[in-house]
Design a protein that fits this description.
Blueprint lengths: L8 H9 L10 E4 L4 E3 L13 E4 L2 H6 L3 E2 L14 H16 L6 H8 L3 H12 L3 H19 L4 H7 L5 H12 L3 H15 L1
Parallel strand pairs: 2-4
Antiparallel strand pairs: 1-2, 1-3
Helix pairs in contact: 3-4, 3-6, 6-8, 6-9
The site of zinc ion (ZN) has 6 residues, from loops.
C-alpha cells in the first residue's frame, strides 16, 4: 500500500530529519548517493535533500534498486506498537477503499474507533491536513486520472468518485487544481498534442 504519495514531500522530509518514529512503516526514504534505504526513525547521517526519494513500502524501495540499511533494518517488520500510526493507516485505508461512497467524517471516525475531534487532530498533526481534505485530494487525483484516460464527461466522473452533487465536485476540483474539470482536460489534451 503506497499512501506516501498523499503525504506531502515536506511532511516526509521533516519526519526524516527529525527521525520521527511515528512514521515508521508509513514511508521509507532512500538515498541516491549511498544506494541505501531507511525507516524515518533511523539515526544515520542526515542526507542531502536532493538525493532523497520516498517510498511507501520496503518492497518498492528494493525494486527501485536500494539496499536496506544495516542499522534500522527497514526490510524487517516493526513490532513497535504505536496506536496513532495504526489509526492513521486505518483511516487512509478506509478512505482509499470507500472514496466512491458518500463518506462522512463521522463514518470514518466511528469505523476507526475514535472521536471525530481526535481523528481530525491527529490527522492534522501527522499528515498536515484533515481527513476530509485528504479524501478530497484523493478524489481529485482520481478525477484527473479519469479525465485524461476515459471519455466520461465531468458530471459522470463527479458521481463516479463519490460526490453527491456536481457543484461540490466542481468546487473541490477547482480548489485543488485551479481549473474546472473541463479546463483541466482541454489543457492537458492540448499540451500532449503539442509535444508530439
Ligand atoms: Zn537506516
Amino acid at each position: 500500500m503506497s499512501h506516501q504519495y498523499y503525504l506531502s514531500k515536506d511532511t516526509m522530509w521533516k519526519a526524516t530529519i527529525s527521525c520521527d518514529a511515528t512514521y515508521d512503516g508509513v514511508f521509507f526514504y532512500a538515498v541516491k548517493t549511498t544506494g541505501i534505504f531507511c525507516r524515518p526513525s533511523c539515526k544515520s547521517r542526515i542526507p542531502n535533500d536532493e538525493n532523497v526519494s520516498f517510498f511507501g513500502s520496503a518492497d518498492e524501495a528494493q525494486k527501485a534498486g536500494y539496499r536496506p540499511c544495516k542499522r534500522c533494518r527497514p526490510d524487517l517488520c516493526v513490532s513497535k506498537y504505536d496506536p496513532l500510526t495504526f489509526i492513521l493507516e486505518d483511516t487512509i485505508c478506509l478512505i482509499k477503499n470507500n472514496y466512491i461512497q458518500n463518506l462522512s467524517l463521522d463514518d470514518i471516525a466511528s469505523n476507526v474507533g475514535v472521536s471525530r475531534f481526535h481523528l481530525n487532530r491527529i490527522f492534522k498533526e501527522r499528515i498536515g491536513c484533515t481527513p476530509r481534505m485528504y479524501l478530497e485530494k484523493f478524489r481529485v487525483n482520481k478525477a484527473k486520472e479519469l479525465l485524461l484516460t476515459t471519455q466520461f464527461n465531468s458530471t459522470q466522473i463527479g458521481y463516479q468518485i463519490g460526490y453527491q452533487s456536481i457543484s461540490s465536485f466542481y468546487s473541490a476540483f477547482k480548489r485543488n487544481t485551479g481549473f474546472s474539470p473541463n479546463q483541466f482536460r482541454t489543457l492537458h489534451v492540448r499540451n500532449c498534442s503539442n509535444q508530439k
